[in-house]
Fold this sequence. Notes:
By secondary structure, the chain is an alpha+beta fold. The chain has 3 domains: 104-181, Thrombin, subunit H, CATH 2.40.10.10; 190-300, Beta Barrel (Thrombin, subunit H), CATH 2.40.10; 306-400, Roll (Pdz3 Domain). The chain is built from 7 helices and 26 strands. It has helices spanning 32-48, 97-104, 145-148, 287-300, 317-323, 341-345, 364-373, and strands at 6-7, 25-27, 30-31, 73-74, 81-82, 108-119, 122-136, 140-143, 153-157, 163-165, 167-172, 177-181, 203-208, 218-234, 237-245, 257-259, 265-273, 281-286, 306-307, 310-314, 331-336, 352-356, 359-360, 380-387, 390-397, 399-400. Residues 1-24 and 31-88 have low confidence and may be disordered.
Amino acid sequence: xxxxxxxxxxxxxxxxxxxxxxxxxxxxxxxxxxxxxxxxxxxxxxxxxxxxxxxxxxxxxxxxxxxxxxxxxxxxxxxxxxxxxxxxxxxxxxxxxxxxxxxxxxxxxxxxxxxxxxxxxxxxxxxxxxxxxxxxxxxxxxxxxxxxxxxxxxxxxxxxxxxxxxxxxxxxxxxxxxxxxxxxxxxxxxxxxxxxxxxxxxxxxxxxxxxxxxxxxxxxxxxxxxxxxxxxxxxxxxxxxxxxxxxxxxxxxxxxxxxxxxxxxxxxxxxxxxxxxxxxxxxxxxxxxxxxxxxxxxxxxxxxxxxxxxxxxxxxxxxxxxxxxxxxxxxxxxxxxxxxxxxxxxxxxxxxxxxxxxxxxxxxxxxxxxxxxxxxxxxxxxxxxxxxxxxxxxxxxxxxx
Length: 401
């Protein structure tokens, strides 16, 4: 069973500090030391490049050109113009990205943090940078947990150049999201998009404080490469409801928005995968997760989730074959917490949860979303479970994680 495991009991307190361990997963908060190294490497490569064959570096002073995108596709049989890929409401021609940027840029902020750490060598201070998006006009900003984690000081710079001290309202390491508050009002905001309307192939724009460069944020264009991705970022934490994109995302983009062409936030840029074989695959936390988490952080200072008391995983083909499962959808119980709600109700290892409270749970993502939006600690619910090919129901009282 090679799938990533999820526990709703062991995720509390997980800290996404990727920069402290070697991994192809990179959070996008950028330190000044890393920025200096990146810029120095870029200058060396630019000055040394001399070949332009396939797959070879481009010499300094030259530019790779890409044919302009055709604004409409033509039906080969009748010459009818077809709309570009995207939502059903997508226009027949690609709108001006410049107009979109002018519209959304005022709601995107730069975040600089100061982290003070006690080490063997004494007190050390480091500076990191990230991005954020204003989602409430009274100064509430959504960003990544790993951008502000352990920060002793937070400074937020608005698009108009105004500088504010920021305070952390709440963080959620399970989704790598955080809310920062500044003392301002009447601020421009960006709305969240409808997760149900996001389509693979839809045009998207990533915007944020890439590389911590001074001045306006960096803007890149791409498409939605995949939806509903999950990614295990460390031994205790797996992120779900991720939007994968080929829009270029760089260190410093953490917490910045991934936008559709209507200027709606469909994700919060969070993680990139880079290796010798991969050219930077970017992931954003989907709006279906980001919006309810942001609302809970404002209301409670934390995300309150109901607890089942299980370790679980999705069902894949090898697991189904190994366990002789008769179904291919559901949440497989890998272990049951001693004394937890699930054990008290009678659940066992290798049970498959197919519904909670009458709502289907075809995978962990669905179960996580229901825990986040539909149910509360202390609530009595009925779990529909498949055991040994038979469907059974168990009633339990949800705990709190």
